[in-house]
Amino acid sequence: MNGATFSVHYDEMVVVKDIEFFSLCEHHLLPFFGKAHVAYLPSKRVLGLSKIARLVNMYARRLQIQNA
Amino acid sequence: MSGGLKIELGRRYRFSASHRLHSAKLSEEENRRVYGKCNNPHGHGHNYVVEVSVSGAVDPATGMIANLADLDSFVEREVIEPFDHKSLNEDVAAFRENVPTTENVCKEIFARLKHFRMAKLERVRVEETATTRSNMQGKNFRIAWRYGKRRKPSDQTNGDFPERTENRDAKESVADLMRKVIALIGEDPEREGLRKTPERFEKALKFLTSGYNQNLDNV
């Protein structure tokens, strides 16, 4: 992740909401879009917030199934 | 017509010619990408096979739709004589503007033969190689092709996904295949609004699947 992790002292849930994405469905190669919400429980380190959206887009730019 | 059934007569002709696939509408780089080795400046040759089908009423006296001698001399004059042992790009006026692909050669032969007076021209099929052919029938224009070789699976992997390979083979460029898809759905890929659609589609598809070139280290 390009070293974009940071030490923290808390362990509460980190939530990134409403990440818009456009993707292609793998069965018909037709476009679909939506909003993704990502949450995780950190253990000593957290990820830079922008990296979450970049990860969503990395997967959105591969063929996906819509009910995943 | 005979008893309401349509009867066709087909005949095969051969000629040998050279050509080069190069479009003035594309840049040098695009030409190399789209046509691959077929863009070689000095051209290459094919032994073309042309199948001509005509239909009409069977003459009760002769038992024929058209006299083969008439068809042969017409095809000889209109196609074989001007195409055989020629450089299509330079010796045939139509291919100074249009790229002499199998499809365009088929269209040009159809246009030349549709004036045959003794019977109705139904179909022209041009085979450039054992694996590539083009059919033209009435107003519908269809392309059929088979692959000579399969894409070999890549042994390199990117996470769970095969590494994307930039494929420069003319038969396997996304844009080139898309051009065929456009023809197969009955549209004219050379129509102004569609001419660059295959390249636009390829660009869009590469962007929409760019995730395969990303991984956790470079995201």
Report on the structure:
The complex is a heterodimer of chains A (68) and B (219). Chain A has 68 residues and is an alpha+beta fold. Chain A is built from one helix and five strands. In chain A, strands 3-2-5 form a three-stranded mixed β-sheet. In chain A, strands 1-4 form a two-stranded antiparallel ribbon. Chain A is elongated, with a radius of gyration of 14 Å. Chain B is α+β, with helices and mostly antiparallel strands and 219 residues long. Chain B is built from seven helices and eight strands, in the order E-H-E-H-E-H-H-H-E-E-E-E-E-H-H. Chain B has a six-stranded mixed β-sheet with strand order 3-1-2-4-5-6. A two-stranded antiparallel sheet of chain B has the order 7-8. In chain B, strand 5 and strand 6 form a beta hairpin. In chain B, helix 6 crosses helix 7. About 15% of the residues of chain B have low confidence. Chains A and B meet through strand 2 and helix 1 of A and loops of B.
Question: Helix and strand string of chain B, N-terminal first?
Answer: EHEHEHHHEEEEEHH
Beta-strand residue fraction of chain A: 35-45%
Number of helical segments of chain B?
7
Radius of gyration of chain A: 14 Å
Residue runs with pLDDT of under 50 for 5 or more positions of chain A: none
